[in-house]
Amino acid sequence: MSFAIIGFGAVGQALARAFARKTIAVSVAARRPPEAIAPQAEAIGPTVTASSLQDALKARIVILAVPFGLQNELAKAADWRGKIVIDATNAYGVSPDALGGLPSSVVNARALVGSRLVKAFNHLPARTLAQDPDVKGGRRVAFLSSDDEDAASQVAALVEQLGFAPVNLGKLEEGGLLVQARGSTWTQLIFQDLVKFN
């Protein structure tokens, strides 16, 4: 299985640290050329590789850690059919009317035609996401939601690999609404730093 993170700001770097902690190979890409982000990628760990957007989009599972609103631009950059996309974006400040009354992840899924989108890793601040998810013997919770059960299962397995505890909230228009921004407000589960103990 191959992995890529698109976007190398605070959230992208936090997720890269999660991969590095578990020595899982991941490509990272940004609008800047690979050589511009290579020093940061190398500083995070040897399994984190800076690449071009085109090369990163060849990965089987792609994490979107970019500002919301770039979905149409990204749609033109690759063939998204069958690709699992982890949507870590937040549409804070975007009015529900501008989204057509839809959850932001549904907007992203429709733009990336044929993708198998799973909402995940968007509810924690980057500084929390960057920390070791092992908390006092428990595991930090990562919420996820999707309309594709198989994709959700594969993402849940990755979440486990990265050391988090996956909690599936169901479909995007149901549980997914609990972990998205709506206009200028955050919904119930945003910023909830929960820990699961076995």
Description of the molecule:
The protein has about 200 residues and is of the alpha/beta class. The chain has seven helices and twelve strands. The strands form two sheets. Strands 1, 2, 3, 4, 5, 6, 7, 8, 9 and 12 form a ten-stranded mixed sheet that branches. Strands 10-11 form a two-stranded antiparallel sheet. The longest helix is centred in the C-terminal third of the chain and has 13 residues, at about 150-160. The two termini are about 25 Å apart. The model has no long low-confidence stretch (mean pLDDT about 95). GO terms for molecular function: oxidoreductase activity. Keywords: Oxidoreductase.
Structural class: alpha/beta
Give the tally of structural domains.
1
Number of strands: 12
Helix content range? 25-40%
Described by strand count, sense and barrel closure, the largest sheet is: 10 strands, mixed
Q: What CATH architecture do you see?
A: 3-Layer(aba) Sandwich
CATH class membership: Alpha Beta
CATH superfamily: NAD(P)-binding Rossmann-like Domain
Percent of residues in beta strands: 15-25%
- Mean pLDDT level: 93
**CATH fold-type name:** Rossmann fold
Ends distance: 27 Å
Question: What is the H-and-E element order?
Answer: EHEHEHEHEHEHEEHEEEE
Tally of helical runs: 7
List the uncertain runs.
Answer: none
Radius of gyration using CA atoms only: 16 Å
In one word, what is the shape? globular
